Amino acid sequence: MHERLNNRLREVRTGKGLTQADLADRAGVSRKTINTVENGVFVPSTILALTLAKVLGVGVEDLFQLPDA
Amino acid sequence: MNEVNRVEKAERLSKRRARIFAVLAVMFLALQTVYLSNGALVEASRISHFKIGAWAVNALVLLVLLATGGNLLRGRDVRGLLDDESTRAHRRLSLVWGFWTMMAVAFGLYILDLFETVTTREVLHAVITFGVAVPLLVFSYLERRAYRDA
User: N or C: chain B end with fewer CB closer than 10 Å?
Assistant: First the structure.
């Protein structure tokens, strides 16, 4: 069972020209949540992962991957 | 309210809440010297009852703040951001810390009771005091840490 996720959230977000606050607002969460996900401190729920992927217009696996995937 | 302003407002309130929680927890712990130094926990005087009542109200208010996150009078959208997924995770973790702290204090007092008489009120006072203060401190720490490297 993995405890961590690799993520490309910061990379994808900045690629779309969005600030953390922009993404936070579109996903309906605080900027703190976006920051902790990007820094790997917080593993998001499935719902939030899917929401972030939807907001950014990418697949969820483009944002998050298991470490050995 | 402008959408990003809403996020910024929630962030400002969230940071302020983290600072306030830490200050309240430290003040709550510091106030316990009143109870430890002058025997308010074992006396049966009216003033002791008042002090104990004040402590109980203080502890209850802090517990409500921890459970709700405060800011109850804010709009639903801002409150939603103030109690989002990472905040709830921080609260859960802080409550876990509170539980283990209470266990540690209870075991410590159980052992202390072998050597020195400890009243029920003293035990409850210590367990509740640390059970309230430690989660507040942990929550505050986690919330402030969440804004690092932003």
Answer: N
> In this complex, which of B7, B145, B148 lies closest to A30 when CB atoms are compared?
B7
Question: So where are chain A's domains?
Answer: 6-56
Query: pLDDT per residue over B88-98, tens digit each?
Result: 999 999 999 99
Interchain pair B87, A28: CB under 8 A:
no
Domain boundaries defined on chain B: 3-145
pTM (predicted TM-score): 0.89
Question: What homologous superfamily does CATH list for A6-56?
Answer: lambda repressor-like DNA-binding domains (1.10.260.40)
Minimal Cβ distance to A25: which of B4, B85, B150? B4
Which residue type occupies B4? V
Beta carbons of B8 and A21 less than 8 Å apart: yes
Contacting residues of B for A45, CB less than 8 Å apart: 85
- Please list, in sequence order, all residues whose beta carbon lies within 8 angstroms of the beta carbon of residue B40, skipping any fewer than 6 positions away: B34, B47, B48, B51, B52
B31-74 pLDDT, tens digit per residue, is 988 777 766 666 777 777 888 889 999 999 999 999 998 887 78
